[in-house]
Amino acid sequence: MAPFYFAMKYFSSIEKAAWILIPRLITFILISGIVIFGLNYPGHLKFFYFAYALITLFLPAIFVLRKWMSVNLLIRFFPALQTICEVIVVSSIVYTTGNINSAFSGLFILSIISAALCNNLAGTLGFASLVSLAFSIVIWYGMAIIGQPESSMKALENIFHSRDAAFYSIFLHILTFYLIAFISGFLVERIKIKDRQLADTSLALRMARLETDDILRHLNSGLLTIDRYGKIIYFNRAGEEILGYKEEDLKGHYFRDVFQTRMPGLSENLQKAIQSKEHSQRNEVEIVDNYGKSIPLGISTSLLIGENQDIRGIIAIFQDLTDTKIMEEKIRVADKLSAVGELSAAIAHEIRNPLAAISGSVELLKATSEFSGENERLMDLIIRESIRLNNILSDFLLYARANRTVLNRIELCRLVSDVFEIVRHQPSFDPQIDLQLKSSESFVYVYSDEDHLKQVLINLIINSYQAIGNRSGEIYVDIENDDYGKAVLEVVDDGPGIDNKILNRIFDPFYSTKKEGTGLGLAIVQRLCSNLGIDFSFITEVNHGTSFILRFDQIPDGQSTAASQKSNGFVI
Description:
Beta-Lactamase; 12 strands; five-stranded antiparallel sheet; 17 helices; alpha+beta
């Protein structure tokens, strides 16, 4: 606001200079015409007229020079000196052109009005006194010369005792001078007061408009205003970012011409608001950005009502709901996982005890009895399926108890090496698959639950080699630090990738594309990562493999284990 305030103050000073210069210059031009063309430039006026002209023409130079130097004293002194010279020149004109009968005595009135434009009421009355004194001296001196009296006092006495109109003429002139001075000074003061009030009001209004425009322009929500005919009259910066248009490209255009092709939902919403002439609550529409990406948009419209309660236009406020939709999806998944976890725990506890009894009884029966043929095959099937069902129940319990975590300081490279040993001893592991650890750092420390983090890595690696199938392949774990101070762990395979058709379901519990899969592997990974505060994501490309990415808040290498456990080790 400061530059705007000083700019207004500067223009106000220019207007003040104009109040002084313009009337002074107009009066000077008029007097110059009388002296030069009317009186043929008489000799007794040369000195005073020259001084008057020089000072008058120097006044604009003073107002120009004050931009570069301090001339406050000159600004006060020169206008006063110019006024005195003007009175002397006008008095000489009146004296030369008939004294009391001069037709140019009205120049005194013009000088008074001109002075009123430059001074306050008191200053104008003071100037009228100076004019009255000068006029009286001119008349007195003229009467003395014309009548050739014995003394000046005698001439003054003759004036006051004259039976003609001389005395009354002088009296009326002086009265007129004061009356004009009072009226013009009073009016000019009132005008100046009104001008100051108008300037202050205008400045306040401009500042209010500027502040309002700043508020609207910096809103996080998009703001679009159209008139009652559908012409766009305002479009803020957030609206430009959301819709991908520039305000200068939209202003003055009809919204249907702009939005109908790429954003028909937005166009129809605005059209409905104009036709119904009612406020609308929040609606959701789909728009397409400049890159062809679909964006969910939340929009609400309000009527712009004029002073006569007539509808002047429509105000539309809208937001990009992409982040909101993502958050809603995360909440939905979390709620679903929580419900499934509770169900899993209940099922596991209800089934595991009788399953253990059944499995133990069958193994005892097989050990104490001899079976052959079909009976032996059935006994082996019961034992094998009991073991598989027990594994499923174990996954249920792990899924249900995933929120019970104990955070400690963990070195990732060592942990990954331990996981590799566990995975290589899995019965289903294929030796054709090459497991590798790649790390740009020797030691990378994070806070996490070691058992749960091992389970995450085991599930991801098992998921990767099951995706590779019965062929040779490569799985490697890459550990590095990113530019944001986070430790990043990637589990990368060269398998077939994930089909786009099932991308949205890979983390759903009990969903699996494998014949022997429980559908809980990746669901457990997602739940454990969520509880451990790990940023979990993945990148996949059909026929080129998949990369699962874990991002941790890194711990400085020099921090002691004891201090770390004291400050950050806790149980959730």
